[in-house]
Amino acid sequence: MLASPLDYSQLVERALRRVVHDALEVVALQGLPGRHHLYITFRTDHPGVVLDDGLRARYPAEMTVVLQHEFWGLEVAPDRFEVTLSFGGQPQRVEVPFAAIRVFADPSVEFGLQFTVPDGPGEGAGAGAGEKQAGPPASVAQLP
Amino acid sequence: MLASPLDYSQLVERALRRVVHDALEVVALQGLPGRHHLYITFRTDHPGVVLDDGLRARYPAEMTVVLQHEFWGLEVAPDRFEVTLSFGGQPQRVEVPFAAIRVFADPSVEFGLQFTVPDGPGEGAGAGAGEKQAGPPASVAQLP
Asked: Are B23 and A8 in contact (CB < 8 Å)?
């Protein structure tokens, strides 16, 4: 729901989440073209995130996954994606609603998107590989 | 179609056109909230634009319409909107595909979006109330 009927920052943020969906759909269908690789930082405590118990304990608030060499079975639905990744040599399936994503980046072309995600109920100290930070509303950023 | 499978500027532009759709849908359902008012600049020579012959002759390339006081019957479809506006006291129906829109602005909150639209076949000298300019890829701008 929008806070105000014409809250453009929310409309833009919602629209830009579509870019993540569309990019992942390309990768699901065609694989990663050229040197593209994707960093996705998401709130692990967001409703709908499906994660192995061990990973959840290790990353109670946020984690970053990388789609580059070791990922399998990427499936993209309108509101979420799922993929199998290797964690310490162990394949693990993760399922992430697009609404849980805080950062999407493709360093190969210096493209990045940052989203606001409300803190979940299980807000704790831990964070994944990504830096934890309070982001501005959705922004299209040039990465350094 | 995307030029390259992961062309983010095209993915972002496509996603941001969704903001125009969503904002117009709010206005169609609830009217213009508060002091909001909308300027929409579109290519009149884009396929799918439906316009009175007189207006088309006057604005062969581009025109800007304002949704503020005098507009009626705004209808929003997934790929286009139509609305009745007053031109010199005469009501005229116009129908505009979202793909034809070059600029969308709501000056009340200093919000603006600019899109790239390929020049149509009937490219001429005339332009509507909006300035004609070669825009960068879709951008979210703070208006002056």
From this structure: yes
Summarised one tens digit per residue, pLDDT across range A33-57 is 888 999 999 999 999 999 999 999 9
CA distances from B4 to A36, A43, A111, B1 (A): 12, 30, 15, 9
The predicted pLDDT at position B33 comes to: 86
* Three-class secondary structure of residue A51 per DSSP: coil
Pairwise CA distance, residues A39 & B92, whole Å = 49
Contacts of A53 (CB under 8 A, 6+ apart): none
Is the per-residue pLDDT at A142 higher than 70? no
Radius of gyration from C-alpha coordinates of chain B: 15
CB contact under 8 A, B14 and A22: yes
Closest CA to B21 of B135, B92, B115: B115
The reply to whether residue A23 touches residue B15, judged by beta carbons under 8 angstroms, is no
d(CA B2, CA B14): 10
Query: Does the complex come out with an ipTM higher than 0.90?
Result: no
* pLDDT score, position B79: 95
Q: A140 to chain B: which residues are within 8 Å by CB? A: 12, 140
